[in-house]
Amino acid sequence: MAQINMHTTPEFEAELEALMKSRGIRTKSEAIRLAVREAARRARPGKRDLRALRGLLNRLPGERLSDKSSAELLAELDTETNDKLDRLSR
User: Fold this and answer.
1) How far apart are alpha carbons 53 and 78 in whole angstroms?
2) What SS3 class is residue 90?
3) What is the rounded average pLDDT of the residues 57-72?
4) What's the whole-number mean pLDDT along residues 75-79?
5) Phi and psi of 75, rounded to 5°?
6) Is-contact 47 82, C-beta < 8 A?
7) Could you tell me what percentage of the chain is helix, strand and coil, using 3-state DSSP and rounding each to the nearest 5?
8) pTM exceeds 0.85 for this model
9) CA–CA separation, 84 vs 42, rounded Å?
10) How far apart are CA 29 and CA 62, in angstroms?
11) At a CB cut-off of 8 Å and minimum separation 6, what does 82 contact?
């Protein structure tokens, strides 16, 4: 495994400690790996994880949502949201 040495500021150390405490992470290395993985995932183009929006489906005005399965609604929401986000990022 490669080793990375870096110099940090006191502010970085404080933020790293806060991340470790909030996520229950024991080592700085583990916290930095997690932060990089999450940042890389957000930066990658492609399908986005929209599961956090599930609770909003029952609040949408218009058609009766009970006429569609949850899978159909999520697929529709994923497609429409990804299309709009792709257009905005151009």
Assistant:
1) 10
2) coil
3) 61
4) 78
5) -65, -45
6) yes
7) 70, 0, 30
8) no
9) 16
10) 49
11) 47, 48
The closest of 12, 40, 44 to 28, measured between CA atoms, is 12
Residue 85's pLDDT is 78
Residue with tokens 């899978």: 71
Who contacts 78 (Cβ-Cβ below 8 Å, separation ≥6)?
47, 48, 50
Structure tokens at 65: 């949502």
Closest CA to 33 of 21, 44, 45, 25: 25
pLDDT (tens digit, 9 = 90+) per residue, 7-59?
999 999 999 999 999 999 999 999 999 999 888 877 776 666 666 666 666 55
What pLDDT is recorded for position 65?
Answer: 53
Torsion of CA 53, 59, 82, 63, to 10 degrees: 150
Does 62 or 81 have the greater pLDDT score? 81
